[in-house]
Design brief:
Elements (H helix, E strand, L loop, with lengths): L4 E6 L10 H15 L6 E4 L4 E5 L2 H11 L7 E8 L3 H7 L9 E8 L8 H10 L7 E2 L5 E8 L2 E5 L3 E2 L11 E5 L5 H11 L3 E8 L4 H5 L2 H9 L7 E6 L1 H6 L5 H23 L3 E3 L12 H8 L5 E3 L7 H11 L2 H4 L20 H10 L2 H11 L1 E3 L1
Parallel strand pairs: 5-6, 5-7, 10-11, 10-13, 11-12, 13-14
Antiparallel strand pairs: 1-3, 1-4, 2-3, 4-8, 4-9, 7-8, 12-15
Helix pairs in contact: 5-11, 9-10, 10-13
The protein binds adenosine-5'-triphosphate and magnesium ion.
């Protein structure tokens, strides 16, 4: 029998989505296609799962690595396809395990139109047990999962845990405020995992957007692009803001900068048809992240501000950043704007004070000038 290279993909939460199910699956299908670009996959919708066919073992291995990053997949694994006949199913199991392996047979039929039922499959394996390439035991830890579907029977022995969540794009779109730090890339992944399509905004301290785009931000964005391939990035310089606020007490600068960031993000949101803003803030982590300062920062913003890391300790964020692969890049030294006002910033600036300072520094005008200098890249 010709060997095939197939991977079954299961989506968990999509089941909850009732009538939207069809569009969710189409979206997941499209996202998988984008994630597997270069592997030339053929994707078949098999009612409650997707089957991804590859052309050889090399593309299969590469594909499996890429699938780990696709939001909306609960688990996946290599499968062998057999015809819907008992001899074929037995034959297909050949080579799936080692001679010394003890295996439990778990059979099920998603399609009931075959002459044999799932009990019949297990009995056939027991009957043929002498000639199998492994031993059978109903209490074994290793499993041979057999599922009869209309188009053939799938045999699998692996269950790779996926990222979970929802397909990117199924929850709308957000602007992620991306810094060169540890937190915001983690927040970006959590946002994508809940189905948000994202565009990034980074405010930088370089002389040009081009310089910013070729800094370590490029590497961070490279890691983030594994979760969602199409990504637009906006770069805006901080120097107009910095020179406009030079005369105000330093302790106020940080919250003022945050309000400026939100307003800029909202402007980018208008262009991108996004009505949410995602940040890497967590509660009480630093002076700007008190309830008072967060309220004063987001004053006047209509978009919902989503802070996926709000309840995370720094330790937990660091662990996630390591797991996601952004940590090593984030800790590299960087010319960060957020060195702004770090010395003893005010921990509770009222909205009114922020509004007053915003006006006195003419930040509405600064915003307009900054937008003119903003650049985008894909
Ligand atoms: P991070 O590790 O993400 O930089 P942080 O702990 O340094 O976070 P802050 O500097 O207060 O905290 O920034 C809080 C959030 O504001 C960041 O997570 C990010 O979403 C956003 N932010 C900060 N600086 C910038 C910037 N230069 N450009 C765009 N967004 C930024
Ligand atoms: Mg920072």
């Amino acid at each position: 029998m010709a060997r095939n290279y197939a991977v079954v993909v299961h989506y968990g939460e999509l089941w909850l989505k009732g009538r939207n199910r069809g569009s969710f699956i189409r979206r997941l299908n499209g996202n998988i296609n984008a994630a597997l670009k270069g592997c030339k996959p053929r994707i078949v919708d098999e009612r409650d799962r997707l089957l991804v066919y590859f052309k050889d073992s090399k593309t299969t291995e590469k594909g499996i690595q890429n699938l780990r990053f696709v939001p909306g997949i609960s688990w996946f694994g290599r499968v062998i396809m057999a015809k819907n006949s008992l001899p074929d199913i037995i034959k297909a199991s050949n080579g799936m395990f080692d001679k010394k392996d003890t295996v439990r047979i778990v059979a099920k039929r998603s399609y009931k139109g075959t002459k044999f039922n799932s009990y019949g499959i297990v009995s056939e394996f027991i009957k043929k047990s002498r000639n199998l390439g492994f031993k059978i035991d109903k209490d074994a830890d290793k499993e041979l999962l057999i599922n009869v579907t209309k188009n053939g029977t799938m045999l699998s022995s692996e269950k790779i845990v996926g990222l979970g969540g929802l397909p990117v794009g199924s929850s709308g779109k957000a602007i992620v405020l991306l810094s060169g730090g540890i937190d915001s890339p983690v927040a970006a992944v959590y946002a994508m995992k809940r189905g948000l399509d994202v565009a990034y905004l980074h405010v930088h301290a370089f002389r040009s957007n081009k310089e910013a785009a070729s800094s370590k931000m490029k590497n961070i964005l490279g890691v983030l692009s594994k979760y969602s391939q199409k990504q637009k990035v906006y770069y805006a310089p901080a120097y107009i803001f910095q020179s406009a606020t030079i005369k105000i007490p330093q302790k106020y600068e940080l919250v003022l900068f945050r309000r400026f960031l939100y307003r800029l993000a909202e402007e980018v949101g208008r262009r991108e048809h996004a009505n949410a803003i995602v940040t890497g803030e967590s509660l009480g982590q630093v002076a700007s992240q008190t309830i008072g300062n967060m309220t004063a920062s987001q004053h006047g913003i209509e978009s919902i501000v989503i802070r996926p890391l709000i309840g995370f300790d720094k330790r937990e964020i660091i662990d996630q950043a390591k797991r996601l692969g952004t940590y090593d890049i984030s800790i590299k030294s960087y010319k960060d704007v957020c060195a702004i006002g770090v010395k003893n910033p005010s921990t509770n600036m009222g909205s009114e004070l922020v509004s007053r300072l915003y006006k006195s520094c003419d930040l509405d005008n600064v915003l307009k000038r900054t937008i003119k200098l903003m650049g985008e890249s894909d």
